[in-house]
Amino acid sequence: MTAALAVDGLSVVYDGYYALDAVSIDVNRGESFGLVGESGSGKSTLLRAVAGLAPVSGGTIRIDGETLKGSKRTKAFYRQVQMVFQDPYGSLHPRQTIDRLLLEPLAIHGIGDSETRIARALDEVGLGTGFRFRYPHQLSGGQRQRVAIARALIVEPSILLLDEPTSALDASVQAEVLNLLEQVRRDRHLTFVMVSHDLGVVTHMCERLVVMQNGAIVERLSAKDLAAGKVEEDYTRNLMVASKGFVRD
Questions:
Q1: Residue 28's Cα: distance from chain center in Å?
Q2: CATH homologous superfamily of 32-44+73-242
Q3: pTM to 2 decimal places
C-alpha cells in the first residue's frame, strides 16, 4: 500500500546548520503519526518542509506516491494537505470575521456552496453558526483553535499537519480539542502527522511516533511501547521524565 506521506533522507540546512539531517518517515493512510523531541529537535521543521514553508536541501517528499518538487506547492497540494499551527491567534487574521476566514479557502480553491460548507464546518468543530460574524479577539483560545481546525477541514483535505495544536491552551481545553481532532480523524478517515513535546498527548493521539534530537531521528516507537516505558534511548527516557502530564499505563 502506498504511504499517505513518505519522507526519505530529508535535509533542511540554514547557513551550514542542519535543522533536519537525512530524516525518513512513512505515514500510512488513516494513521496518526507523532513527532516528539525537545525544542529545536527539528520536528516542526519537518512539518514546515512538507508544507513548503522550509527550504529542502536534500531528500524527497511523496504524497500518495507523488514526489513533490522543490519548496513550491500547488493549489492541489493545499487541497490535500492542510496545517494547523500552534498559536491560533497568530494564524487567524485579526480583522476578518470567522465567516470571512472560512470563506477565503473556499474561494481560493473554487469550492462552491459556501453557506452550507461554513455552517457544517463550524458545527463539526462544536461552535455553531452563532460564531460566524465574530472576530478572533472575541473568542477564547480554545474557540480560536477550533476555528483554525475548521478552516483546515473546510477544503476536505486527506492529511492534517498538526504543529503543537494544543500547547497554547489550558489543560481542560487541551483535552476537548484533542478529543475533537480524534473524532474528526475517525469521521473523515484523515491522516495526522502531529508534533508535540508532550508525550502524554502523543500517546493519547498517535499509533506510532519518532523521537527527534538535533535534526535527526534517534528512536522509532509504537505509542503502546512508549506508554509501557519500553524505550531504548536515554534521551527518550529523559523526555519521559521531563514531559509534564505523562502518565505511564
A1: 15
A2: P-loop containing nucleotide triphosphate hydrolases (3.40.50.300)
A3: 0.93
Tens digit of each residue's pLDDT (9 = 90 or more) over 33-47: 999 998 889 999 999
- Return the closest-CA partner of residue 78 out of 106, 118, 43: 106
The C-alpha cell that represents 127 in the structure block:
461552535
Residue 105 has which C-alpha cell? 479557502
Q: What does the domain layout of the chain look like in residue ranges? A: 32-44+73-242
CA distance 219 to 244: 20
Amino acid at 239: L
**Structural element, H or E, at residue 191:** strand 191-196
> How many Å apart are CA 110 and CA 89, to the nearest integer?
26
Residue 130, C-beta contacts closer than 8 angstroms, at least 6 positions apart: none
Task: Report the C-alpha gap between 227 and 203 in whole angstroms.
Answer: 6
Residue range 14-22: mean pLDDT, rounded: 94
